[in-house]
Each structure stands twice: as C-alpha cells, then as structure tokens.
Amino acid sequence: MAAAPKYRRVLLKISGEALMGDQSYGIDVGTVDRIAADVEPAVRAGTQICMVIGGGNIFRGISGAAKGIDRATADYMGMLATVMNALAMQAALERAGVASRVQSAIPMSTVCEPYIRRRAIRHLEKGRVVIFAAGTGNPFFTTDTAAALRAAEMNCNAMLKATQVDGVYSADPKKVPTAERYDFLSYHEVLSRDLQVMDASAISLSRENKIPIIVFSIHARGSLAAVLKGQGRATIIEDRV
C-alpha cells in the first residue's frame, strides 16, 4: 500500500526561473508540463495544493528598478509576469487532468478570478489546485512573502520551496563544492546565518504561524510526492522542540 501523504494542505512556491528550463528567458512548456505531471499524483493521493510562482523568468522588479524604472512601477510589472506564469501552469495542470484556478491579487476578471480567501479554500476542498498570482498585490513585497502570507491564510500544514538544488546549503553548491548541506534548520538559524533561502519577511511570517518550510529540488522527478510523504531529500526549516 502506498504511503499516505504527511501533509493535508501545502503551498508550493516555485521560482519563475524554474520555468525557463534550459532557456535564458521566458517559459519552457516542457518544463512546466513536467512540474504539472509531478503535481497530479500528489493531488490524486489526497493532498490539497496551492501554488505561488515567481516572475523572474519574465521580469524582476528589482532589476527593472536598477535600470531607471520607478521601483513601485517595476514591482507591478513583475506582478503581471507572475500572472502569465500562473496561466501557463494552469494550462499545464489541466493538460495533466488536474482541475485548477488562478486567483490574482490584482483584479483582472477577463483572465482569472480575484483573490478571495474563502473561495480559494473552497476550491482546495474540492480538490482543485489554486495558483495565487500577482504576489500580495502590493509593491515592495516579494513572491516569497506572498507565499508565506497565502500559506498562513489557507491554513497550510507546510510550505514547500522548490529550488534548483536539493536543500539548503551554507553557500551556493554550484560555486562552492565544499558547501555544507543541512537536513534541519530552525527559522532563527536561517536568519542569523543569512542563508538566503527566502527573504526575512517570509521566514518570520512562517515562524509566527508555525508553518514548516521544506526546501527541495524541483528538477528531480517524483521529488514532490516523496516530500509530501515525509521522504526524499530535502531541508526542513522549523522550530524543533
């Protein structure tokens, strides 16, 4: 008998860069389809999944601001990029047979639903994947913070941070081969060591709401299902008693 999921409801945070595949820009449909194919068995196993996807593969507000665009305007442009990624993921999920809804913090009723907390929870209870787009709807907040906020609002049991590597390291393992990998960390250790897992606001919000953060590789096929069963290779960030 297959192992039952350890978590009833989770938020999956994916960076926009993860959708690029081997491209240097934009959305690689094959990569998005592969991620959707990993989500499908997890939903079928009974886990309720909501998602937040970054927009860095299309436009990153901070880099735009550095080029002379007003920071608030640049951040709004980045929010629109996350809506594009959310729609791409929705299409991929539906190709995989998974019902899904996109809810945007910036209302755009022609293409998706507005963010309404109770409606989002109802979608999750019906087995639909809900993709939260446009961050928090406010400039100066990252999609990491938006992910932590939505995870708290949805009463998630965990936040899954899908990255390019299989956990949290003391330094970038692609640049520093001797970097130490951690299996467990406390929220305080992440902040005090400046480990750059997520921004400080997201870590603090997760700690306040006692939401574990699980960091794993998005590139390993089947890794999502393994993490949801409490298995697989990942770093768990929580305050351990």
Count of separate structural domains: 1
Query: In the CATH hierarchy, what is the architecture at level 2?
Result: 3-Layer(aba) Sandwich
Computed CA radius of gyration, to the nearest angstrom: 17 Å
* Strand content range: 15-25%
* Main sheet attributes: strand count, strand direction, barrel closure: 9 strands, mixed
**Largest sheet, spatial ordering of strands:** 4-3-5-2-1-6-10-11-9
CATH homology superfamily name: Acetylglutamate kinase-like
Shape: globular
What are the segments in which pLDDT stays under 50 over at least 5 consecutive residues?
none
Name of the level-1 CATH class = Alpha Beta
Q: Can you tell me the CATH topology? A: Carbamate kinase
- Let me know the number of strands: 11
What level of helicity do the residues show? 25-40%
Q: Topology as H/E string?
A: EHEHHEEHEHEEEEHHEHE
The average pLDDT score comes to: 94
Structural class: alpha/beta
Number of helices: 8
| CA(first)-CA(last) distance | 31 Å
Describe this structure in words.
It is a single chain. By secondary structure, the protein is an alpha/beta fold. The chain has one domain (9-237): Carbamate kinase, CATH 3.40.1160.10. It is built from 8 helices and 11 strands. The protein has helices at residues 29-44, 61-66, 71-95, 117-125, 143-153, 187-192, 200-208, 223-228, and strands at 9-14, 48-53, 100-104, 113-114, 129-133, 158-163, 168-169, 181-182, 184-185, 213-217, 235-237. The strands form 2 sheets. It has a 9-stranded mixed β-sheet, with helices on both faces. Helix 1 packs across helix 3 (71-95) and helix 5 packs parallel to helix 7. The longest helix is centred in the middle third of the chain and has 25 residues, at 71-95. It is globular, with a radius of gyration of 17 Å. It starts with 8 loop residues before the first strand and ends with a strand. 45% of the residues are buried. The model has no long low-confidence stretch (mean pLDDT 94).
